[in-house]
Amino acid sequence: MANGTTRRPARRSRQWLWLVLSFAALAAVVLLLYETEDTADVQRTAAPPPAPAVSVLAVAPGPARAVVSAYAELRPRWDAELRSAVSGRILAVHDGALAGARAAKGTPLFSIEKTRYETAVAAAELTLEQARLSLLQARNKVTLARRQFARDGASPPNDLALHLPQLRIAERNVAAAGAQLQTAQRELADCDVAAPFSGFVTRRLASLGQTVNTGDPLLQLSGDRRFEITAELSQADWKLLEQPVTGQTADLYHRGGQLLGQARIRQGGGFLDPKTRQLRIFLDVTDPPQAVLAGDFLRIAFRGRKLSRTLTLPEGTLSRAGHIWLVDSSGLLQRITPKVLFRHQGNITIAAPEGSGPWQVARTPLASFLPGQRVSPKPVEG
Q1: Which of 191, 272, 285, 288 is the most buried (most CB within 10 A)?
Q2: Main-chain dihedrals φ then ψ at residue 308, nearest 5 degrees
Q3: What is the end-to-end Cα distance of the chain in Å, rounded?
Q4: What's the confidence (pLDDT) of residue 22?
Q5: Which helix (H) or strand (E) holds 62?
Q6: In the predicted model, what is the mean pLDDT of residues 115-127?
Q7: Which of 230, 217, 204, 245 minimizes the C-alpha distance to 97?
Q8: Nearest-angstrom CA–CA distance, 349 and 361
Q9: Are 195 and 75 in contact (CB under 8 A)?
Q10: With bands split at pLDDT 50, 70 and 90, how would you rate the model's confidence at 382?
Q11: 253, containing H or E segment
Q12: 60-88 average pLDDT score
């Protein structure tokens, strides 16, 4: 029992010893960390941080020729669904009538059975000959009557005595018979359907052996020689154009930017589109280059009038918020909201701000720019 009693105080003494040593080690670590933070390398300087470098363009006010751009679809002037003008069975479908074929003006497309119309022409010719015979007989009667009255030395009491009413009826019968013959001949000619203008067959709607009636669709033909464009401009852009616009030319650009040719302004202005409230300009394109296809969405550049006191800048100088940043002579940023007059070929032309200039314009404005911020301007070429 004495042995067990002496072991317990010794064990408790060792536990307290380890506990004290642990607290001592923890205190030493905390003290070491505190001393390290307290002796951190801090350097103080009175000089402000250097001003950030900003690339600037030096620009001065000057005149510029306005260029107004609009986007519009190129459409063929003639785009028609050809329909049958006669009734009958289709005897032939020519190669020019196949979908995708390019048909020149006058190219045969369909041949429709024409026996009935040949018979109608023959009947109309017979009727015309009979009417001409009746006219000759009426003229002969008038001549004989005039001679008879001349021999008798008397005056005819009225037109009926000279057979003049019969002569007028005979003349009208000849005219009517001639018109009937022309109608029959035209219907006979309509049995051979030909392309009324040069173009591409976009759809074929009738087949060989099919019986068609007057007005039935045969094919869709889209012209390839003459095109037209309807462009819309805002009233502000319209004021930039030289007036009158009729007869002027405009440049056509592909979506990729290459110049395709020119279009002639047929008419413009005069009324507002009831939906868009913009003015319309109608342009003609005749014999365009092969790169131009119907349905293309083109950019039309109209040459405008000459403007004074403008600045022409790269589009990148205009921030997303619509601001231009200037750097004054003291190296401080100034923010202005310009009036953009027009855009052309990656540049914007704005009305020059007040003053004589030149001005230093930030080439690439940053979202971190603040009015009055000091920067270090670095001139670059536009």
Answers
A1: 285
A2: -105, 160
A3: 103
A4: 73
A5: strand 62-76
A6: 97
A7: 204
A8: 13
A9: no
A10: low
A11: strand 249-253
A12: 94
